[in-house]
From TrEMBL:
SUPFAM superfamilies: CheY-like. The keyword Phosphoprotein applies. InterPro entries: Bact_response_regulator, CheY-like_superfamily, PhyR_sigma2, PhyR_sigma4, Sig_resp-reg_PhyR, Sig_transdc_resp-reg_receiver. It comes from the Bacteria. SMART domains: REC. Keywords: Phosphoprotein. PANTHER family: RESPONSE REGULATORY DOMAIN-CONTAINING PROTEIN (PTHR44591:SF3), STRESS RESPONSE REGULATOR PROTEIN 1 (PTHR44591). Coiled coil: none annotated. The modification 4-aspartylphosphate is found at residue 193. This is Response regulator. Residues 143-256 form the Response regulatory domain.
Amino acid sequence: MSLGQQLAPHLPFLRRYARALTGSQVEGDRYVRAALEAIVAAPDQFPRDIEPRLGLYRTFQAIWQTAHVEDTDSGSESSTEPEAIARKRLARLAPLSRQALLLTAMEGFSIEDAGYLIGTDAGDVNGLVADAIAEIESQTRTRVLVIEDEPLIAMDLETIVRDMGHEVTGVAVTRDEAVALAMEERPGLVLADIQLADDSSGIDAVKDILAEFSVPVIFITAFPERLLTGERPEPTFLITKPFQRETVKTTIAQALFFDQATVPAAG
């Protein structure tokens, strides 16, 4: 099997990580392309003594960390707006903490593998993750609209959202209901399933909402590969079903991290 064939199954999930890290589909996919170009240019330098997925993420991490340091040192006048917003919030948050959190909670890497990827001792990763969770969650509180037609999943999402200190404005099970709830009480974040109760689409519901006002969105799907191709406008933040509690918490925190207009919850 060629190296390209070994890496192909992991590319959608690297895009997910890169988009969550940068807060942008365009920027995230750009870093992924840069990683792939580096591998193509020097395939003999790709680490062969580890799993292909780990080697792919390691190559990406090297490019991201180098570019991120250069952007921070230069002030990055060419940064996209979400990146500029996030950089202000990064003043008190170590970038390694955020990477450790995403790699473990979202991408499912072990503590040891995460340490390898970010170039730190495994013993330090737990502390980095704890620091990231505490810092990010303390920065943002908002109102959340849940678009989910499966009652048990909706209940799980509501519980996670409230446990994080956010307010749930409502739970919608159809496209029309989602839009109506969003217009009635504008949310600061939307969690949207893809397939809804009446065979309508959560994607269409979100498009209707975004036509009225801007709000960060996290999509939830059992088939993430279909929305992580890098070939068309696609979600920046994506949760895979079945999901883990920490994955949801991390993705919510990261989506709000890049949002400049987070509205504090009442009370």
